[in-house]
Specification:
The chain is about 20% helix and about 30% strand. With about 100 residues, the protein is of the alpha+beta class.
């Protein structure tokens, strides 16, 4: 969860970041959402964001730096807990990361 929050902070210079935590009516599923109004991710890049070492920002700038491992680790941990992760994004509008975990 920290990686999703750190990414939202890193890629949102202006605007807002919201965090939602919800559970279904039966209490069997928890939904954790991190949503930002940051720079967003181009649609053609979305299929690759969970690949190891993949970086949407290709420059070597430390402003948006990182190894490209964060989201691949997040996805693996979520799946090891039987959950699912989904990212939707639009450049100039922002990014939404949803993690769904079952109890």
């Amino acid at each position: 969860m920290m990686n999703l929050l750190e990414n939202a902070i890193r890629y949102t210079d202006e605007g807002e970041i919201t965090v939602h935590v919800d559970e279904d009516v039966d209490g069997d599923t928890v939904l954790f959402i991190v949503e930002d109004t940051g720079i967003g991710i181009p649609e053609e890049e979305l299929p690759y964001v969970f690949e190891r070492f993949y970086r949407v920002e290709k420059s070597r700038s430390r402003q948006y730096g990182g190894t490209g491992l964060g989201l691949s680790i997040v996805k693996k941990l979520v799946e090891l807990h039987g959950g699912k992760i989904r990212i939707t994004s639009q450049p100039g509008v922002g990014t939404r990361c949803e993690v769904r975990l079952s109890r």
